[in-house]
Amino acid sequence: MNKLFGLIVLALALMPAAVYAQDGHEYSPLAEKTVNYKNWTLNDLKDNKPVDLRSLVQGKKLVMVVYFAPWCPNWRNEAPVAARLYEKYKDQGFAVIGVSEYGSRDDVKNYFGPTGAPYTVVSESETRDARDKTAHFGYRQSAGDTRKWGSPWNIFLQPAALAKSGDVLTEKAWIVNGELIEADVDKFIGEHLKTSTVALITPCKE
């Protein structure tokens, strides 16, 4: 029995940033990946005006960019988690940016309802036909996400460490190829915000 348990634990440990299916969820662990994540300019959901990612992250310590399809049940599972984390940490320099995929702007607006999203949402694509043509698809491929639609897909950015110019913002980043595991991500956010604060107030040594 102990041998069998050990084999199960080993198998789970060897799974590459896998998605753990559980009760209709698709949970995935945080993992640092090489993605060569680029700056983008996309139209926001509220005003349909172009916004630049570099501008959106200015003044923040940690930003979670979550790609989602408004019709996806796994995104609907994660959405309350993303909202809770945003509310908990937004006053400490944490931000969430949603990037909608494979659904119309009207569908996204209808999903969030009359009050709108609690954080900035932009649109990259509006039809399912665009699936393998989006930057989202390319990032998922490089991060080892083998799901068909990749909703949700989360990437964490530290603005202070991003390139100040050029297309590529960062070569490596922390990725979640699926739904957030709330306790793990909560701890990750808290620790990174604390580290950022210490770095900002620590005087330079002569």
How would you describe what is shown here?
This protein is of the alpha+beta class and 206 residues long. The chain has helices at 2-14, 53-57, 73-89, 105-112, 135-142, 182-201, and strands at 20-22, 25-27, 30-38, 41-44, 50-52, 62-68, 94-100, 120-123, 153-157, 168-176. It is globular and about 40 Å long.
State the gist of this model.
With 206 residues, the chain is an alpha+beta fold. It has 6 helices and 10 strands.
The number of distinct β-strands equals 10
- Describe the biggest sheet? 8 strands, mixed
Strand order within the widest beta sheet: 3-10-9-6-7-8-4-5
Number of helices: 6
Query: In the CATH hierarchy, what is the superfamily of the domain at 38-176?
Result: Glutaredoxin
Structural class: alpha+beta
- Which consecutive residue ranges, at least 5 long each, have pLDDT under 50? 4-17, 198-206
Residues in helices, as a percent range: 25-40%
Which fold name corresponds to the CATH topology of the domain at 38-176? Glutaredoxin
Report the end-to-end length measured between terminal Cα atoms.
Answer: 59 Å
What fraction strand?
A: 25-35%
What radius of gyration results from the CA coordinates?
18 Å
Q: Architecture of the domain at 38-176, CATH level 2?
A: 3-Layer(aba) Sandwich
The run of helices and strands is HEEEEEHEHEHEHEEH
Give the class-level CATH name of the domain at 38-176. Answer: Alpha Beta
How would the global form be characterised? globular
- Average of the residue pLDDT scores: 89
